[in-house]
Design goal:
- 29% of the residues lie in helices and 29% in strands.
- It is α+β, with helices and mostly antiparallel strands and 161 residues long.
- It has a 5-stranded antiparallel β-sheet with strand order 2-3-1-4-5.
- It starts with 24 loop residues before the first strand and ends with a strand.
Length: 161
């Protein structure tokens, strides 16, 4: 079943969706992505020896800040009063690299998927920026929504997630 695009008006113009009639419910979104790097670069990050400082700490703060400013970055996103933004950055030696996960939460009239995705993207970019002097060939991969809960559409979980 095809869904109607809510950000497009009847004449094809972009518009911000009116959520004023929606019930305020608890909404949660979890997104994830990866920064793939060499084992040597991963060791550098984990040892805390990057020239620019604490890579993981900076990436966590950047992700939180990005989630809070999503409406300034993504056209037509509603500004939201987030009640929680949690960043989890886990080393994965098999990649090798880092798995970045964001959880965003609020009680409101619209979802927080874009906030979680933006948090992951900016945290990954921050990791890249902080260690690019050691390795320019790092890759940012697989940014996607893992789960969302709340609102009229209920629960979504990515396959395999």
């Amino acid at each position: 079943m095809a869904k109607t695009l809510t950000h497009i008006g009847k004449r094809g113009q972009a518009r911000m969706v009116d959520v004023s009639e929606k019930a305020a419910t608890e909404r949660v979104a979890i997104a994830e992505g990866r920064v793939v790097m060499s084992a040597k670069t991963l060791e550098l990050v984990l040892a805390g020896n990057a020239k620019k400082g604490d890579v993981l700490g900076a990436a966590r703060i950047a992700g939180i800040m990005a989630a809070k400013r999503t409406s300034e970055l993504i056209p037509l996103c509603h500004p939201l009063a987030l009640s929680k933004v949690e960043m989890d950055i886990t080393p994965e030696k098999k990649l090798p690299g880092l798995v970045v996960r964001a959880t965003c939460k609020l009680k409101g009239q619209t979802g927080v998927e874009m906030e979680a995705l933006t948090a992951v993207a900016v945290a990954c970019l921050t990791i890249y920026d902080m260690v690019k002097a050691a390795e320019r060939g790092m890759r940012i991969e697989g940014i996607h929504l893992i789960e969302k809960r709340g609102g009229k559409s209920g629960v979504y979980r990515a396959k395999g997630g």
